[in-house]
Amino acid sequence: MIVSKDTTIVDSQTGAVIRAAGRPYVSKDIDVHVGAGATSVFKVNENSSGRQLKLSDNMEVPLGETSLLTSGALTDVAQIWAAGPQLALRWKRFLLKGEYYHIGVQRDHQAQTVHLPSLGFDGWYVAANYTLLGTPRVYSEKTAAFTTPGVTYDFDPATGHWGALEVSGRWSVTDLYGTENQGGEGVNGNQQTVWQGGFNWYPNRHIKVMLDYAHFIVTRSKGVSGGVNLFGRDGNAVVGRVQAAF
Questions:
Q1: N or C: which terminus of the chain carries fewer CB neighbours within 10 A?
Q2: Are 189 and 224 within 8 A, CB to CB?
Q3: What is the pLDDT of residues 96-149, one digit of tens each?
Q4: What tens digit of pLDDT does each residue of 204-239 get?
Q5: Domains and CATH numbers, the chain
């Protein structure tokens, strides 16, 4: 989630992050991960307009500089917190994982004649991967997460080696519509839903090639800069990406 940049900040924020994870069951074919995470900002940045917050984010495949998803500008913010569970299950070559987060925004009423409402936002995703070639994803106790598929032999068609290949799918929802007029007149916050699928190919342990298709649905919002989402938007995207890590 992106908080808009501001060069007039006169008082920086303070906060904390915590995460706990466990592995309650593991066998040759089954691996279970459970966990939870939480974060809190005890004091929000203060700028020339007071302590404000604007939550905004792009879909998994960014389509430009303007994010269609936003909460709108929230004023007199006293505290922000977020918390939620996470769960993952591997069965042989198949991996299913999901995570949910609730974001709470408390308002400062000291300078207000009318109390501003506290706001709550939600977001979650469910993702699945199936390893077609190579070794399946395994659990890393160091990071408390599942790794990428393993490449048994580097890509070499002459010897019949193709690296690692997996098919993936993902469904995500981000709901920043806390209440009407939460940042001013009109509907400012909105909701984004993304369905995504694709292939991930690892010719060796340093290179990753991705081909993804995404269908997105974003409801209307008057809080998006430039008025580019006054009526809601939906569309499709096909994206390829090559990533190198050493």
A1: C
A2: no
A3: 999 999 999 888 766 556 677 788 999 999 999 999 999 999 999 999 999 999
A4: 999 999 999 999 999 888 766 666 777 888 899 999
A5: 2-244 (2.40.160.10)
Q: Output the DSSP codes for 60-110.
A: SS--SSS-SEE---B-SEEEEEEEEEEEEEEETTEEEEEEEEEEEEEE--T
CA distances from 193 to 23, 122, 125, 206 (A): 30, 12, 10, 32
Q: How many residues does the chain have?
A: 246
